[in-house]
Amino acid sequence: MQQERTVSPADPFPMVVVEHLVKRFGSFNALSDLNLKVAKGEKIVLCGPSGSGKSTLIRCINHIEKHDSGRIVVDGIELTGRICDIRSEVGMVFQSFNLFPHLSVLENCMLAPMKVRGLAQPEAHERSMALLRKVRIHDQANKYPAQLSGGQQQRVAIARALCMQPKIMLFDEPTSALDPEMVKEVLETIIELAQDGMTMVCVTHEMGFAREVADRVVFMDRGSIVEEGDPNTFFRAPNTERAKAFLSQIIH
């Protein structure tokens, strides 16, 4: 059964609300009393050192990880302890491509819309090919993942996520597993997606990409949000010493 919204649909509300979020792995606090709101259509870039909780946060938003306390509301629906209907509304692209190796590119894209959304095969085929064209990989539709480059596979992964027509896209360091020459083609695809108005939360170390795409940069350290602001302010004049130290290491 579809869950009831925790906010009236007539009222404006953020696409994502995270309140007092805590996530533990054993005795380790991965997220500590974290609060974040993401507006509809907003592009958020999460940055910070390794182990700061960035990936854990977006995995909690997608309900891949279950939080220990606090609350997460996505599109007006609160994520509870059980698998939520809202997961099908959230697209996610990982560091590794996670494509099914035994399925063609086209079959990878068609599978979820048919199995989860109940889309008929002709409609799933049409939608998949349209999105493969959008990410400029339609000419490889009948190939298998192993026949593609890393950059091509990641673009297929993006198309596959979009085939579910999600309301928000989450990216977990989508270029970190790519060779340097393949990074540009994937970032260009994500930039085009951002320009189309998709709500996005992206974990990345690509600071040039953050400057170009982000409406807001959120800097995390040790499971907490240390600082956030528009890209120009964050990169030119960060407020905290921790952010200044981080930027001095990655921007030369």
Folded structure, characterized:
The chain is α/β, with parallel strands linked by helices. Helix content is 34%, strand content 24%. The chain is built from eight helices and ten strands. The strands form two sheets. The protein has a six-stranded mixed sheet with strand order 6-7-8-3-9-10, with helices on both faces. A four-stranded antiparallel sheet has the order 2-1-4-5, covered by helices on one side. A hairpin with a 2-residue loop joins strand 4 (69-74) and strand 5. The longest helix has 16 residues, at 180-195. The radius of gyration is 18 Å and the shape is globular. Mean pLDDT is 90; it is low at 1-11.
Question: What is shown here, in short?
Answer:
Helix content is 34%, strand content 24%. The protein contains eight helices and ten strands.
